[in-house]
Design goal:
73% of the residues lie in helices and 0% in strands. It is mainly α. The longest helix is centred in the middle third of the chain and has 19 residues. It is elongated and about 45 Å long.
Length: 91
């Protein structure tokens, strides 16, 4: 798992790493990772023409369906709606 790799690189146990990560960021590793994936997804939707499937791969969601579900839950709009809101100036 990625967390185990990070902990190993820092010569910490997984438990110590996750505790220190929470203390430093105020978030669990999972919450932080999801927030970073959302931030990067937003950025790619705003500035690229990549299809949702490619964005899902690039940010680590695996599938477009997973990306769409997480995006809608987190932001209340679909990725397509988000992208359209930043393409208004093209009209």
């Amino acid at each position: 798992a990625k967390i185990d790799d990070w902990a190993r690189q820092l010569a910490m146990s997984r438990r110590t790493f996750t505790r220190n990560f929470q203390k430093a960021t105020g978030m669990s590793v999972g919450d932080w990772l999801l927030a970073e994936r959302m931030r990067r997804t937003q950025e790619l939707l705003e500035v690229s023409a990549h299809p949702i499937e490619r964005i899902a791969e690039l940010v680590g969601f695996g599938t477009a369906t997973a990306l769409r579900q997480q995006f809608k839950q987190a932001l209340g709009v679909t990725p397509a709606e988000w992208r359209r809101s930043f393409r208004m100036d093209d009209a």
